[in-house]
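Fold this: Probable multidrug resistance protein NorM
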Amino acid sequence: MEKRIDFTTGAIVLPLLRFAGPVLMALFLQAMYGAVDLLVVGKFADSTDVSAVSTGSQIMATLTNIISSLCMGMTIFLGQKIGEKRADEGGQIVGSGLALFAVIGCFLTVFIPVIAPGLAMTMHAPEEAFGLTTAYIRICGGGIIVIMAYNMIGGIFRGIGDSKTPLITVLIACICNIIGDILLVAVFHMGTKGAAYATVGAQFISVVISYLLISHKTLPFTLEKKMLTWNKRIIRRILVLGIPIAVQDLLVGISFLVILAIVNSIGLIASAGIGVAEKVCVFIMLVPMSFMQSMSAFVAQNRGAGKLDRAFRGFRAAVGISFIFGAVMFYTGFFHGDLLSGVFTSDEAVVVAGAEYIKAYAIDCLFTCFLFCFIGFYNGMGYTTFVMAQGILGAFAVRVPVSFLMSRMMPGSLFHIGLATPCSTVLQIVLCFGGLIYISRTKK
C-alpha cells in the first residue's frame, strides 16, 4: 500500500506540516485556476468582461463550495474510520458517496443553466455585463457534474491521509485551464465565454487523467462495483456531517454575494474592482485554508482513535504556525494592495478600487489563523452543526448588516464595506473559544 500519513501516533507538527504542504500547494493551484480566468480576461478583454467573470465566478465558487462541503462529510466519516482502524469500511462509504453525488450532479446540471438569468439579476450584475454574466453561469453550470467529480477525488484522498494525490489533480486542471484561457480568450478573443469553456474543459480533462492515475494506486480499502449503491445508513451519516457545513458555506457565500450585489449597485468600476480584490484575497487566505483542511483530517483520525488530547495539541500548533503567515499576509495586503490588484488588470481605476477592498480584507488575516483552525477542528470532531451556527451568525448578524450600513454611510468606499469581514470573524472567534472551553470541560 502506498504511504499515507497516520496522525494518531508519533510527532504532531512535522506530520501536520507534511500533510498541509500539499494541501497548500493544491489550494494555491486552485486559486491560480480561478485567477487565470480573470487575469487573462483583464489583460485581453475590457471591464465588461472582467465584471461578468468576477460576478459569474463568485456565484460558481459559492456553488462549488457547497459541493466541496458535502464532500467534507464523506472525508470526515472516512477519516474517523481510518482512525478507528476500520479502513475496510471505506469502500462502502466511497461507493455510497459516489451514488449520492451522481444524483445531485445530474439535477444541478439541468437546474443551474435554467436559473442563470435569475442569479445574474439577483446579483445586480451591471446592465452592460448582464448577458455575459448569464452566459458564464450557464456554461459552468452545465459542467457542474464534472466539478463534483473533481471535488470528490480530493475529498476521498484527504480522508485517508493522502494530500499528494489531490495536488496532482489540481495541477493537471490548472495547467489545462491556463492553456484553455490563452487559446480561447487571448488568441480566439472569446472573452467571458472562452473563460467559462476553459474552466469546464480543464476540470473534465483533470478528472479523466486523475481517474487513470488513481486506478493504479493501492487504497487502504477495496472499492468494487457492487459497493456503488444507495446505502441509506452511510448516506445519512455523510449528510449529517456534510449538510451543516454545506448550509454554512451556502449562507456565508450568500453573504458575500450580497456584498457583491451592494458593490455592483455602485457601478461598473466598483464591480470590477471587488472582483479583482476577491481573487487576490483567495491567495491571501491560502495558509489558513490549508490548515483548516489539514485540521479536519488530523482531528478526525485522532477522534476516531480516542486521542482527544492529541487533537487539542495539534490545534494549538496549527494556530501558531498559521498566525506567522497571517501577519506576513496582513502587511502585504494592507500596504501593497495596489500592486496585488495590478496583477489582474491594467485599468488604473479598477486597480485603485480593488486595493481599497484588499486593505480591509488584510486586517482579517490576523484573525483567520484562529478561525479557520477552529473550523477544521470542529469539523474533524464531527461538530458540524456548531460550525454552521457560528458561520451563519457571523454572516448575517455582522457581515451583511455592517456592509450595508457602510455602503449607506460611506457610499463608494470599498475599504469601509470590506471592514464587515474582519468584524464578523471576531464574533465567530469568540463563539469558537466558548465552544472550546465547553468541550474541554465536558471531556475532562
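The two ends are 37 Å apart (CA to CA). The chain has a mean pLDDT of 84.
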